[in-house]
Amino acid sequence: MDKSEYTVQELVNDPSFVEWAMGDSEGDRAVFWNEWVKKSDEHRRKALDAQKKITGLRFTTPQLPDIKNEWSKVRDDIERQNNIRFRNPEDRATGNNGGLMGYLFKAAAVLLIGAFVGLALYMYQEPTPESEPVAIMTVETGYAEKKTINLSDGSSVILAAGSKLTYKSNWLDQPVKRVGLEGEAYFSITPKESKNKPKFVVETEDGSAAVWGTLFTVDTYGEGTKVVLEEGEVRVKVASPETPSTPEMKMQPGEMAQFHKSREQIALNKVNPAVYTSWTTNELYFDETPFSVLVSRIERTYGKEVKIKDPGILDMRLSGSIDFRSLDGLMNAVSEVMDVNIYKSEETVIIEQNN
Predict the structure, then answer these.
(1) Tell me, what CATH number does 293's domain have?
(2) Looking at residue 215, which CATH number applies to its domain?
């Protein structure tokens, strides 16, 4: 991958770029393409055009004229003109049908012009909102899986396990890019120069988070939505059906916003962002974090039910970091650090005090 210049078609045909565009690229390949798109505006433009083709953006295809039907109309007009002209005995005697032939050539010319105009529209017309419904695209992750979605401007989205991201197929063409989220995701959005409109909006069942350029997580697991801001600027808003014009609340780095569609209030609390973002680096960081947070993370990441034999375990506090690359590794680390016994079955993880 030492080639520095690509055409759009070469990008579309390059398996490593396709993986990157679809969010399946990792390691050196992901680093290569991330750096490549940042090198110049030309690279970003080519990456954007190629990404549009790969992700299936569609264009309107207007119908061509119905040639058979149009010729039928011409023939009917010719016959009608013929009947009118040959009512004159002189025309019938002399065979004077020059006007008729002229009409025929004009009609044929009009038909052909119409066909070529239709072909031109077919080839060059751009879509309008009324002419074609926009498809909804979806990226999903299973248990113990996460995906990275890279955008051509250097932005990226890391989708956590058991999550779903939805977006319209023409979203890359929109001035404000909108995505829907169920589950959890980490967003790294390249800053936008203009402050008039946000660059990116994440919508959940409970409301939205609008950003101009920032690092943050959105979590819809459990009750309501949680947004944790690591860096930059985020404005959150509740999607309240009772009061659609609810005001936005601006967050500061190091804050967590919690909101629910059934309540107008947004709760803001100071937190350590690393506790909520460390999962993206295959480790879990804790800062006097309740054990219940780890239990919730295990259930939603690995799809296992966690049973606590001694309720007092949930009151324990965790500090430090734990390897999160596998459930077995996580269980061994927690067992040693917290002095608890952990057992795993097909569908369940059982945690009890070490007697």
Answers:
(1) 3.55.50.30
(2) 2.60.120.1440
> 201 and 269, same structural domain?
yes
List the domain range (segments joined by +) for residue 199: 175-273
Answer yes or no: pTM beyond 0.70: no
Q: Are residues 260 and 286 in the same domain?
A: no
d(Cα 83, Cα 103) in Å, to the nearest integer? Answer: 14
Total domains in the fold of the chain: 3
pLDDT tens digits for 238-297? 986 665 567 789 999 999 999 998 888 899 999 999 999 999 988 899 999 988 889 999
